[in-house]
Every structure is written in structure tokens, then in C-alpha cells.
Write a structure and sequence with these properties.
With about 300 residues, the chain is α+β, with helices and mostly antiparallel strands. It folds into two domains: about 120 residues, Ubiquitin-like (UB roll), CATH 3.10.20.740; about 140 residues, ADC-like domains (N-terminal domain of TfIIb), CATH 2.20.25.90. The chain has a five-stranded mixed beta sheet, sandwiched between helices. A three-stranded antiparallel beta sheet has the order 10-11-12. A two-stranded antiparallel sheet has the order 6-9. Strand 3 and strand 4 form a beta hairpin.
Amino acid sequence: MSTDSLWYHLPPPSTVVPTPPAEAPRAPVALSIDGREVEVAAGDTVLDACRTAGASVPTLCYLETLTPVNACRLCVVEQEGARVLVPACSRKAEPGMKIQTASPRVRTARKVVLELLASSVDLSTAGELTPLLEEYGAAPGRFGAGAATVAQPVKDDNDLYVRDYGKCVLCYKCVEACGTDAQHTFAIAVAGRGFQAHISTELDVPLPDSACVYCGNCIAVCPTGALMAKPEFLLRQAEQWAPERQAVTDTICPYCGVGCTLTVHVQDQQIVKVTSPIDNGTTRGHLCVKGRFGFEYVHSEPER
């Protein structure tokens, strides 16, 4: 029998999509959150337990899709018997823990963290932090007009996004997204120490000369607007950015067969931003350069 005739006798390919094996059950861990007994699975964090208990714990450097780096200390809680406050985002839940999420000590610590950030960084586009400053009664002005600041010129060296590190709170989210948690490009990292610590490309070269592939995943995770897509930046500069007037629609990226979900933001009949849902199983909030920035052709005028 020839090879060609044998090919016709092969069984048809299966149309069943394989599914990953079910996760092995994890032992329950019982602990107390603000006097309420809760149970979480072994390996879950104190933050998971707080959310299970319905306790509100603010976060800044934490994101569900990124590895916790314990950078901001905004999520600290008080553990009975512990000498120092506990970072809820990374501390694993342990049996018998007694956690207080809003004790005077905790609230004072969070207030000071917010004051230190707001006294040195421009938080005008940090939508997540503005209500927290009010909630905790933070008064950054008490450090005086001479407080240290990281104000610096905006880095505008490419056509897709700008970097305004005068708004950077060193949450490390962009570094994690550019690294092993998402893109594996490693185009940026933290350089310097102490007050000189900052986000930088390799050898501080301009972005077009770096390893950046312009996926924009760093923009997606930035909580302060230090990294911002060029259309949004230009509209903000012209005082025309109006999220309340934007229509937001989910669609599927047309560029390849992966099937990434795009969230298209449209203002005045123009696409002004593309994001992706963080809870989407395909993208987990991440996109490539085409999905995030490849929409300009929609606005192209037809040739005559």
C-alpha cells in the first residue's frame, strides 16, 4: 500500500477541545478578619481572605494577573501578635490568624503612605488614589512646599505612547508586565536606589532603541497615568478627554486567530483607546501592538 493511499485510511482529527485537568482540592484555612471567622483555600493570601470577609483593603502595586512585589505597603493590615504590619497582598493566610483591616495603626500607616506619594508625585490622573486620599484624610501639604519631587519632562519619543515619570509611584506593575508575568520582553526595569530609583530602559536609551515591542501592556497596568497611549495624552493636553462621553464596546481582534477580546473606547465617533478585560481567559488584560494600537486604519479617508 502506498503512502498516499494510507493517508486516506487515517481517522479524522478529533473535534473535541481538550480541557486541563481539574485543580486538586486545597485544604481549608480558617482565620479571623475583623472578628469574623472565614475560610479560604490553602495558598490564598490574607487579601483573598479579606475580600471573602467583605472587608475593603486598598491596593496599589497589586494586580490579580501580576506577581505581588510588596512595593507600596498600602494594603497593610494588623495581625495579632506580629511586630510589624502585614502586606495583605502577598502574605499567605495561616490557620488561626487574627487580622484587623482598619485599626488606628493601619489607617495611620495608609494615610502616611498616601501623603508621601501625593507630596512627591503628580497624582492628577491617578483615578484609583484620589478617593483614597479623601477617605484617609491625607494631607500631603503638611510636608511643606519644599518636599522632594520627581517632576521631570514627559518622555515623548515614539508614536504610540508617552512616559511621564513625574507621575510614577514605583509600583513595579509595568516591570512585571514587561517581564515574566506577561510579555517576557524585559525592556524596562528599576534603576538606581533610594531617591534615585526610577523606571528605565536598558542603559536609559530612548524607547525606540530599546527592546520594547510596543505591546502597551505596561500602559494597561499603570495606575497613575505615568504611561499613557498617545491619543489619550493628546486629548488630555487639549482638555478634551471625556470618559463619561465614551462608548465602550467589546469585540474580537481581527488581526489573527488567537481571538483576543478588545474593549474599544469611542469618543466623538473616534476610537481613542483600546483595552482588554482583565478577567478574560484569553487575554488576561494583555494585548499585542496590533491589538492595542492598530486601529488607526479605521479613521483613514478612502482614496479618491
